[in-house]
Amino acid sequence: MANMLHLQKLSVGTESVEDLAAWQATRRAQTPDGLPRHVTRMWPKKAELLLSGGSIYWVIRGVILCRQPILRLDPYEGADGIARCAIVLDPGLTRVAATPRRAFQGWRYLDPADAPRDLAPGRAEEDTLPPKLAAELAEIGLL
Fold it and tell me: What's the CA gap between 58 and 9, in Å, rounded?
């Protein structure tokens, strides 16, 4: 889709897709209506493109391993009184082909042409490889 854009974001402190899911199940990581959210300092300038079918692609230990569709962007005020953006997400995590990524701060836009493909439904339930091994295999083209 030409009029769409994704985000990529490091999932800091997360060891696996299951860890990310567990964090998002906590009330602290949810909106008042129970959906997972990621609060960020900056409001995306290309919000309209993100809301046209975009997802967050989560980087876990240096590897993109899953994605979540972006449902909406909510204003959020932190305890410090600073206005922020809450990126509200679909609760389902879709596993994607392991794709190595170098560390970066904040989030980055991701062109749909560069986004990792979703894993086939049967593969999504397989045990995941350790992120370091997945990154090494992806780098040599085996994943």
Answer: 5
CA distances from 117 to 33, 64, 68, 121, 127 (A): 30, 11, 13, 12, 18
Phi, psi at 119, each rounded to 5°:
-75, 150
Give the tens place of pLDDT for each residue, 34-63. 999 999 999 999 999 999 999 999 999 999
Q: 55-60 and 6-10 as β-strands: parallel, antiparallel, unpaired?
A: parallel
pTM: 0.84
Domain boundaries, the chain: 6-139
Indicate if the pLDDT at residue 72 is higher than 90.
yes
d(CA 98, CA 29) in angstroms, rounded, equals 25
Phi, psi angle pair for 77, to nearest 5°: -110, 120
